Amino acid sequence: MTFVEAEPPATATPAPTLTALLAVQESPAGSLVEYVIGGQELTGAKRELAAQMLAEDAMQIRCGKASVLDRWRARRDGGPRETGARSRAVEVYVKLGFGLPDAPANDDHLQGLVAELLWNRLVQERLVCRDGRRLVHAHPVKADPLETGGDGLLVYANDTGTLVFRLWEIKKHDSQAKKVSATIGRASKQLSSRGQEYLAKLAGPETVEQEGPLGDLYADIVELWLDRSERAGAGVSIGTSKQHAPTRASAFRSLATAFPDFTEPGQIESIVVAVPEFPMFAARVREIVWSGL
User: Fold this and answer.
1) 3-state secondary structure of 168
2) Structural domain boundaries of the chain?
């Protein structure tokens, strides 16, 4: 009898991260503002995969664990269209931030939404930061970008186990007359002047939902922000087109100007995703979301 040695089972190739698809590049060590820039070469199959990721994320944020998410996925993947209330329920979720094919959301709002989705996935993929912070809790972006309140809030544990947070403002940039640095500056000023209001809106429910050190952080978060504590920090994220990608660190200077007391490494951060034809990329994300109707 001849024994044939079994081949080892094939291992699935891990799906690429958005960080990898965007070929994100970090700022030089010691930069006053820690920043990353990516997306300039996002084309072809990688571009389509990135758009599919964001459409999936958008619907997960909207639907949570509701069965309507599975119905949306089935239709997106070529299944039959639902009827009656089941079809209308899918429309309700899809309409948030995207509108519907016969009444699409404003293009500016759509691009702002996609800028938020890009930030949302990138920061959740970054489990450990350059300064050693480890991600503990990430607030998902809002289902509808027109809702009032802060855009993004992240909680980390530093290398001593102390919980710290970063409040983010997220914007799209498409101006041909102004540089992206102007949008970073506008976002920085908005965060500096209204950050405490954004945090106040987020903190109350979290003091009920969270316990222990995390709940204590939320109970104190507004005071920590107003005191410009070492446990606080700020970030600005921009979604834009390739030609607007910053070429100098000075593009981020306004963020440091808005927060002169945030001087620890990683206390002020920025993300710029600059993909070819950002408006068209945002429109493709919407097309994929609509394909589930």
Assistant:
1) strand
2) 23-43+106-278
